[in-house]
Amino acid sequence: MIARSTRATRRATAVAGVAATAALLAGCAQELPTPSADEPFTGPVLTLDQEVAVVEDVAAVLEEAEAEASPKLLRERVAGPAFEVRRSQIEVAAELDDDSFVTRIPTDLAATIIPTTETWPRVSYTITQPTENLEAHRMVAYQQESARENYKLWLWVQLIPGTTMPNFADPEAIGSEAVAADDDSLEVTPAEALVQYADLVAQGDDSDYADAFELPEDSQDLVKRVQADARNLRGSEGFEEADGRYRLTYAARDDDPVAVRTSDGGAVVMGALDGNVRIDVEEDGSIAPFTQTQTALMDGDDETNELYVEYTDQVALYIPPAGSGEPVRPLGYSHDTVTAANEFPSERNTDREEPEESEESE
């Protein structure tokens, strides 16, 4: 568990950390404009102190829900894809009596990105300092559905090691523009970028959108991770002899993504992908869960010749401005198993109209 200082000390440390490192991850180097007396102020909707208070209040609920092994406590300050993932993590941690299965989201901040949205829902973003065991920075989105509701943890990703974050507007003086899911000022809209990325995760180099993305060369992103898992299983000893089949499906979540403008006219979009794998072998064979998480989620069910696993993947992408000709870049991801079963369900989390599937094992 991460050692926690007092609330006042943490808040002072977080604000100081944001001020010291904002230029690195979310700063803006040019002089700030000064509004004239008759010019309406359209700056950020939160102050840094308010943002830090949101982060701390959410962290307190996360800590309590984990300590009580009670996912229902999350509902006060967690929603959307983050709720699904955190609920699963708490259940797995309780089953295995091991809190290492719960993602740590530090309250010490390296940067904040606060949009100037004047309507709801509103979203703010933070980039955390590394965890105590030096895991990479996390980018976190907090969403407020209405003026009467609290900001809730909505999405988080772990930034890909070595990734270069784009610049954002100064969070205290200017604020960054929120970007709609269908915004066409970008090379591709935020909603379509997630659809394309889901196809790339499932299809790998065979995706029609492979050339539209620039994947990191020296670090693992979601595409590399999912495709490596598929290759390893398909190439495992006895899989072909058992007449094994491996089917992988991914689809972008129907929920609107959240996105914020970068200083170059591009945008960072955060959203969720639904994924699943269906593995089966000959009728008299059996398939054991491949991970401790899968074992915990199967809750003691007997092994059969089928294994079904669902994932909720939170992702962050940088989309360049329209006309730039630049590819979309993955910035971070969180790959989490949320369901495991010993038979294929009649309905899958990727059921849309006609989701595309990867080729079965050769």
TrEMBL record:
<dbReference type="Pfam" id="PF26366">
    <property type="entry name" value="DUF8094"/>
</dbReference>
<keyword id="KW-0732">Signal</keyword>
<dbReference type="InterPro" id="IPR058407">
    <property type="entry name" value="DUF8094"/>
</dbReference>
<feature type="signal peptide">
    <location>
        <begin position="1"/>
        <end position="31"/>
    </location>
</feature>
<protein>
    <recommendedName>
        <fullName>DUF8094 domain-containing protein</fullName>
    </recommendedName>
</protein>
<feature type="compositionally biased region" description="Acidic residues">
    <location>
        <begin position="353"/>
        <end position="362"/>
    </location>
</feature>
<feature type="region of interest" description="Disordered">
    <location>
        <begin position="323"/>
        <end position="362"/>
    </location>
</feature>
<feature type="domain" description="DUF8094">
    <location>
        <begin position="44"/>
        <end position="340"/>
    </location>
</feature>
